[in-house]
Amino acid sequence: MAAEQLIGLDLSIASEEVIRLLLDDPPDSGIFEEIFRANRHRPEVLKVLHQHKATPGEIRKEVSLSLNLPVVAETDLVEAVEEEEAEEAILQKPEKLLQRVQRLTIGEKIQLALRGGKEIRNILIRDPNKEVVLKVLENPKLTESEVEAIARNPSAPEEALRYISKKRDWIRRYSVILSLVSNPKTPPGVSMPFIARLRTQDLVILEKSKNIPEAVRNAIKRYLRLRKK
Predict the structure, then answer these.
(1) So what's the pLDDT on residue 89?
(2) pTM (two decimals)
(3) Which of 20, 77, 179, 184 makes an SS bond possible with 152, Cβ 3.0 to 4.6 Å?
(4) Rounded to an integer, what distance in angstroms lies between the CA atom of residue 30 and that of residue 37?
(5) Are 142 and 148 in contact (CB under 8 A)?
């Protein structure tokens, strides 16, 4: 678990906006304590943590002590946050997560890709920068259904498809290898080794598909002939 928590992102040097995004779309409940422990030397980050409505009460108390602030009752805090949000809503429409993520630098996106929650991962997996997409694939919270969606996506960079094809845990899942072979972007050298693992009914459909490379279709055709013998 500790290896997962520390992977790829040093929270002690992450920008305030990356911290805010992690709090708004947390990968897990432990992120609040991680941010607090890593940022005792950064009062500006501690203030963000103290004011965030999702920060657990125990963490907020510790932050209050670190900042020499009075420990407020949970009900008072909720009322204060709701009042502040209502005022902000009147003054300005809250920015969408997508807009905030798009404004980040490539370095910040890479940091966020390694630790972001599902909504953030869903945004970054479509980023035009392939390095950002590859870092999303290293996120320890990535689910099998997300991997399948990436393997099926014809807009996914070739490097991402190669990366998926080399992960044993992922290619044990039938839907992932079917998605890889069905994806027109998957290099033939990557998809062909999976042909023998596909069901006949799926191979028959793929044999007729004009979306996959001709070399893959021909390999499927030859394999189907062998199965009939």
Answers:
(1) 42
(2) 0.80
(3) 179
(4) 11
(5) no
- pLDDT means per 10 residues, the chain with 229 residues, are 49 94 93 95 94 93 88 52 48 70 95 94 94 96 95 95 96 97 97 96 95 96 87
Do residues 177 and 164 lie in contact, with contact meaning Cβ atoms separated by under 8 Å?
no
Task: List the one residue out of 96, 94, 40, 92 whose CA is nearest residue 68.
Answer: 40
The whole-number pLDDT of residue 69 equals 78
Residue labelled with tokens 């002590």: 65
Place of tokens 């094809």: 165
Q: What are phi and psi of 180, to 5 degrees?
A: -65, -45
DSSP per residue, 98-144: HHHHHTS-HHHHHHHHHH--HHHHHHHTT-S-HHHHHHHTT-TT--H
Provide the pLDDT for residue 8.
55
Amino acid sitting at position 164: I
Instruction: Record the tokens describing residue 13, joined without a space.
Output: 């040097």
> Which two structure tokens, joined as six digits, stand for 66?
């670190």
Q: Which residues contact 224 (CB under 8 A, 6 or more apart)?
A: 200, 203, 204, 207
